[in-house]
Every structure is written in C-alpha cells, then in structure tokens.
Amino acid sequence: MDTSWERFRTYLRVSQAYRIARRLFVMNAFDGILTLMGVVIGAHFSGLSDPDIVIKAGAGGSIALGISGMSSAYLAERAERRRDLKKLEAAMLIDLKKSQFARASEFATIVVALVNGISPAVGAAILVLPYLLVPRIDMEAAFIASLGLGLGCLFVLGLFLAKISHERMIVSGMRMILVGLLTIGIVSLVSAPGAI
Asked: Does 3 reside within a domain?
C-alpha cells in the first residue's frame, strides 16, 4: 500500500526536486547570511546601542527574504514545470493533468518554493541570535558573535557543498569563509565612520 512517505519519495525522484532544492538551499542560505552580515556591520558602525533595532531589522530582513524567495521560486518553478508538462502532453498526444507526473511536478514546485524561502530566512535569523543576549553580553560581543556565527554557517555550507561534489571538505569550508571575510572587509570599509 502506498503511504504518504513513499509517495513523497516517489515525487522527489520523478520531479528531481531534491537536486534543485539542494542547489537553492546553499545559494539562498549563503545570500541570507551575507545580507545580514551587511546589516549587522552597518548597524555596528552607525553606533547603535539598542539591540532591539538590530533584532527588528534582522527579523524584518529574514521575513522579507523568506517571502521573496518563496513567492519568486513558486512562480518561476510553476511556470517552468507547466511548460514542460504541456510539451510532454503535445509529444504524447494525451492529457497528463491528473497524472502522477503532474502531481510530482506540483509537489516539486512547492518543495522548491519552501526551500528557497526558508533557507535565506534561517541563514539571516541565525546572525541576529547574539543580540537577544544583550544586556547579558555587550553590543560589541554581540557583534563579534554574530559575525562568528555567520562565518561558522558559511563553513558548514562549504562542507555540504564538498560532500555533494566529493571535494576536500576543509578546503571548501575555508573557501566559503574567505568569501565571508571579504564581505566583512568590504562592508566595513564602506560603513566605517567617514568612509562616505
């Protein structure tokens, strides 16, 4: 008997959604982390002493990234998959709208949209966590911890990419950290007092 879990796995396999979702997960988590790094650095160099402003800006950014990612991926993936379904129908001269392939395509659209929305939102939200600890820690410590968490998340994404591509994990992780450090350096130069 076909269980929901078996059907879920079949849809993932038929639609190849896991490959698209995996790629989008890395790209969008990366985007969310780097975006919030910019927000955190800008807030730090503007002299903010109120952690609530960083928390609210981070939460707002995370929500916006999530909604944007989810809606854009759903609309784009839906259009692509409907086009593919129509091409297949034309080639086979049959109506496939109620077929397992059509259901798998719709399922894939939803999975891709969810991953595309959740991954940048979660990546961004992680960087806000240290600011929830103020005043137990000071703003300077929250700033350093936030950037440290961001770099740690980038390293983990690098490990994940290395596992997919069968490359050296530490090298891949360090490559991601290098991009994070480059981002921190450039944003700090632009955000530092008297830079603009």
From this structure: no
Tokens, residue 109 = 């659209």
> How far, rounded to the nearest angstrom, does the alpha carbon of residue 119 sit from its chain's CA centroid?
3
pTM for the predicted model, two decimal places: 0.83
* Residue 172: Cβ within 10 Å count: 20
**Host domain of residue 124:** 10-189
Closest CA to 140 of 78, 49, 60: 49
Closest CA to 25 of 170, 130, 128, 156: 156
Q: Does some domain include residue 124?
A: yes
In this predicted model, what pLDDT tens digit does every residue of 48-80 receive, in sequence order?
Answer: 889 999 999 999 988 998 899 899 989 988 898
Specify if 19 maps to a domain.
yes
Q: Name the domain count of the chain.
A: 1
Residue given tokens 């480059």 in the structure block? 182
1 domain residue, yes or no:
no
